[in-house]
Amino acid sequence: MKQPLVRIERLIKYFPIRAGVFKRVVAWVKAVDDVSFDVFEGETVGLVGESGCGKTTIGMTLLRLYEPTSGRIIVGEEDTTYYFLPTTKARSYLKRSYTDRFQQLLKEKGSTDSVIDSLQGIDRRYAEIFFGDAKGSASKFLSVMLSNMDEKRKKFRRDLQIVFQDPYSSLNPRLRVKTIVGEGPLTHRLVRGDKEVVERVKAVLEDVGISGEYIYRFPHEFSGGQRQRIGVARALALSPKLIIADEAVAALDVSIRSQVINLMKDLQKEHKLTYLFISHDLSVIKYVSDRVIVMYLGKIVESAPKKNLFDEPLHPYTRALMSAIPIPNPNIKKERIILKGDVPSPINPPSGCRFHTRCYMAVEECSKIEPQLREVKPDHYVACHLVK
Amino acid sequence: MENILSVRNLSTYFYMDEGVVAAVDDVSFDLSPKEVLGIVGETGSGKSVTVKSIMRLIKHPGKIVSGQIIYKGQDIMRFDEKEMYRIRGKEISMVFQDPMTSLNPLYTIGDQLMETIIQHQKVSKEEAYKRAVEMLGMVQIPEPEKRMKSYPFEFSGGMRQRVVIAIALSCNPSILIADEPTTALDVTIQAQILDLMKDLQQRLGTAMIFITHDLGVIASMAHRIIVMYGGKQIEVGSSDDVFYNPAHPYTHMLLRSIPRIDRKIDRLEPIPGQPPRMIDIPKVCPFLPRCPRNVDECNQKIPDMIEISQGHFVRCFNPVGGGN
Q1: Domain of A349?
Q2: ipTM of the complex
Q3: What is the pTM of this model?
């Protein structure tokens, strides 16, 4: 089986709402609630949904700009979930997720080999380390896992980069392009000395279609589209494996948007990049993605290869979303599905299926039982009771 | 049919420290009763400034430098502020993009609705209240009577936009101007609001000027479309003309450059270059630097609007022929 570049397992991110003098937590915003998916090397995964569905939170949590409430984030062959936790928390995470579990399994199965055989993927790899190098000692395993943290973190930061939505607020107005783009490679020691920085920055700028002569300019001297190119160059400068594009073209004018989309596609081919493309715009998602994940109120409702999803959307929400997209063709007659009401609050999401309050097909069980994401056709996953 | 609004040679310039910005340059169009006229263009194309000029809402350093705006036979450009007061909200009303900033957060939406009604119509408070509740019901706000006492923050974005539409329609205006009314909303909410606006427009027979940057939205709403670029009208026609036989190279290329959900596209064909910086632009076609179809004449003067088929005008020396 192909190994995913990034695997997100049962990711949960809740934000506390505090109130009162003592800033007590009075409620939780359930931004992302039990989401799992894989991103494979070289593909573009489109993450689509309306505001408040948790798509941006996933991006930010993946990058560890937010710490996940629970769940695992595996990048390549490493569990990176504990990378940015304080040591004590990292220890308890590793103990909970691995050593305790392995010891428990050993009791049940009797031999280390059968424990290793019963596990897959990253668990198996860590079990091999635990019973092999660490000889079944939890403290040894922990010290292996917690060694070279700086290096691990740096590698993580280099491999995962992000392009933000707003090309105005995402570039520091006081820094020259050379510093903005060159800071990363310099920190990561990919280049040394001013001459190499200049060379590197010029090369990436030319890659994104901006003349290398402009490296001493400030962001305000560029137009919106050019700034977004600089944003892409900054991510690209570190030769990352995965670029998260969070609404990267949403703020651009129509005629400029397609330039940047094409640029990102070209760069992907050239540099063998993987994209997690987050957007609210289904037409953009349709154009850029290989696989599409549709989210609603912190949950995945449908996920499928692009063609399957657009040819045969199965979840009622996906269908409504698609029918709501205005098409630049005045005579097209399509059955519009107009959803009732607004997206409910993620603080108290509806019971059962979270979409049932707006769903035009909902039956009684929808408000009671939460539908699980299941494979209804090859590679086509849907969370809906009514899809057979 | 008699036009309800005629705009003739409207130019609005902004006098900035860096130079003069010709935000709207020589724009003319007519609006007939019950018609929905769409204005489409990118940021800085002058679509918002055009309608703000009609409402006479241009502030320093902007100035309407020339043009006539004839509303029901009268040139409202000659009206003073007091007379404009009567026009705004009563005769011509407006819906803006951001419903949070067009509502006052300190007053209940009932107060804000009644204020408009009392301002423009000689009615008692009780009658205004009745009318306000009726308006809320018309824009499909559930339990309108209860909601009269709510403040804007208690409403979601889509609901707020419904309230704004209710206020705009409360005095039975002849013309409703909607400036990107759904841009700030989510797609499913956008579909609701567009549906509502279309329905109300047909029921009340209000003429409408609908501004957007979204070609998909305009296709579903407008009867006739004006395409603007760099402060100028570059193409005017029925929505069929503009979408199926775009004549201006910009319109033609724009329609090919956008990602679409209804078609399979292997590769987008973007328009090269940047939109014009608007300061002190030369007196040639604003699209010239990006245009692959330019001819010698383009470097000398601005082309006039020419009629290439009935009701289909284009400002280009070398328009695109054939279908898209």
Answers
A1: 312-382
A2: 0.85
A3: 0.90
